[in-house]
Amino acid sequence: MKRIFSFLSGILAALIVTFSGCKAQIKSITVDELHSLLQNDSLTVLVDVRNESEFVGTMTKIKEAINIPLGELEERSSELEKYKDRPIYFICRSGNRSSHATKLITEKGFDAYNVSGGMLAYSRKFRTGK
Questions:
Q1: Is 21 in a helix, a strand, or coil?
Q2: DSSP string spanning the chain?
Q3: In tens digits, what is the pLDDT along the chain, a chain of 130 residues?
Q4: What is the DSSP letter of 83?
Q5: Contact indicator for 27, 102 with CB cutoff of 8 Å
Q6: Cβ pair 34, 115 in contact under 8 A
Q7: Helix (H, G, I), strand (E, B) or coil at 20
């Protein structure tokens, strides 16, 4: 039941962001750029917006990532305040949910970037493990 609620919350949040007339410009980076940041900058902030079951389940993940599902991002955005002085990178499975997260957080005054292609592209290129 918790998974269903979390999944539906994520969809609802994505729809709200999509149809709310967000004017924020989405900035993106490639998986190559993200990989380079993770290798060379220990202060890189990466937020994985997949549902908890996806994050800890069978799909690959990046160990440095903070998991805040898209459906919880609005209510948990205060957790990111300590990173407001630096860029925050958002990733999900394919890049769709993370683009919505990027819009949402950009409108709150953060410097946010979407990781194009998401974990599908990242794991194809860099073979991440659990």
A1: coil
A2: -HHHHHHHHHHHHHHHHHHTT--PPPEEE-HHHHHHHHHH-TT-EEEE-S-HHHHHSSS---TT-EE--HHHHHHHGGGGGGGTTS-EEEE-SSSHHHHHHHHHHHHTT--EEEETTHHHHHHHHH----
A3: 555 555 555 555 555 545 544 455 799 999 999 999 999 999 999 999 999 888 887 667 898 999 999 999 999 999 999 999 999 999 999 999 999 999 999 999 999 999 999 999 999 998 755 4
A4: G
A5: yes
A6: yes
A7: coil
Identify the DSSP state of 24. P
Residue that the structure tokens 């980076």 belong to: 29
pTM equals 0.79
DSSP SS3 for 99:
helix
Q: How many residues does the chain have?
A: 130
